[in-house]
Amino acid sequence: MNQHSQDTIISAGLVGTGKSTTSLLLKEELNGVRLGTDTIRTQLFPNYPDTSPFENAPLETMWGTVLDWLEKQDDIEHLNLLVAMTSTHGIILPDSLRERANPFLDLRAKQSAQTYAELLDWGEQYILSYAGPLILDATFGRKEGTSSRTEILQRFAKYGNTYLIQFTCPEQIAKEHIRARGIGKIDPGGTLARDPKIYDHEKEKYDPISIEEPFTQIIAYNVATQEVTVRAGLEESYVLNALIKLSSALRDKTIKI
What we know:
Blueprint: E1 8-13, H1 19-30, E2 33-36, H2 37-44, H3 59-73, H4 80-88, H5 95-127, E3 134-137, H6 149-156, E4 162-168, H7 171-180, H8 197-205, E5 217-222, E6 227-233, H9 238-251
Parallel strand pairs: 1-3, 1-4, 2-3, 4-5
Antiparallel strand pairs: 5-6
Helix pairs in contact: 1-9, 2-5, 3-5
């Protein structure tokens, strides 16, 4: 069995910072397994609708249309449309529609919690079954609580080493990355993650990562500069070495992100 087969690598950071693209490259470099919330949501809620018919409609018309459509669907997998229109576009619901929208917003919160719970459950199954390290890829913006960085440590540290990679880049670059994906369709993550406003929405709720968090190693990676630095723990590790190798290839344009 691979000597690192029960290690867990956490890929954490705000949308647009390059964590998912880099974690996919890291998975290949380390011959590991990557699980992300995008993968889990696609499995749990596969049918996301197109938001483009509603984008240019007046607010009252858009919300009335969206709510009517959602009520007819009566299906949790379509609730992302409603949330996308609020959180990523900065829309405040008109009072006339707020009461009707609350049940959908409550269900969307449950869907998000289910996605993170499944991510950790699937992760534990994989880490005991595959001969390679496990990479968990999500925002992981909370230090405490359900599906937080603390819970990950409690669940996975007993199997092996735990590494945390904090992905960062200047806000303008992150928003450019998001915008470059194009606007108009729900992505596998279940939100309009192609709208730069989602960066601000995530940033408001993000708990900065502290060097006191007891991971085996905390690595900071800046996708804009390809700078890799160790913030806590071991001075050298196979995870750090792999990330340095990838960053060198990115800097030399051998591969693109």
